[in-house]
Amino acid sequence: PVYMVVDTLITNTGNEAQVYPDLEVEFSSLEGKLIARHRFTPAEYLGGEVHSSDLMPAGVPVHIDMVVDNPGPAAVSRSLTVHANL
């Protein structure tokens, strides 16, 4: 399989630390047709010195790398949705 890395920053804009969210990446065609979707839990996208049991600090950008199957050349658009873990 061929993989690609989705590289992004997320920031907790709240006033206090909170639980890391799930992140959902979607790839779409030029016509808006959904080609691929993957939902990542904090345990899947956090690494290094940050652990999924840690709280996300307020106001500090967190660098995220998510490895996904390459959706192919028809995927010309990408979106990222944040799902709160309450």
- Unreliable spans: none
Major sheet strand order: 4-3-7
Number of helices: 1
Based on the structure, what is the oligomeric state of the protein chains? single chain
Q: Give the overall average pLDDT.
A: 93
How much of the residues is beta strand, in percent?
over 45%
**Radius of gyration, Cα only, in angstroms?**
14 Å
Which structural class is indicated by helix and strand composition? Answer: mainly beta
Number of strands: 7
How helical, in percent, are the residues?
Answer: under 10%
- Compute the separation of the termini in Å: 35 Å
SSE order = EEEEHEEE
Give an overview in words.
It is built from 1 helix and 7 strands; from the N terminus they run E-E-E-E-H-E-E-E. The chain is elongated and about 40 Å long. Strand 3 and strand 4 form a beta hairpin. With 86 residues, the chain is mainly β. Helix content is 5%, strand content 48%.
Annotate the secondary structure layout.
Elements: E1 3-10, E2 18-19, E3 22-28, E4 34-40, H1 42-45, E5 55-56, E6 62-69, E7 77-83
Antiparallel strand pairs: 1-6, 2-5, 3-4, 3-7
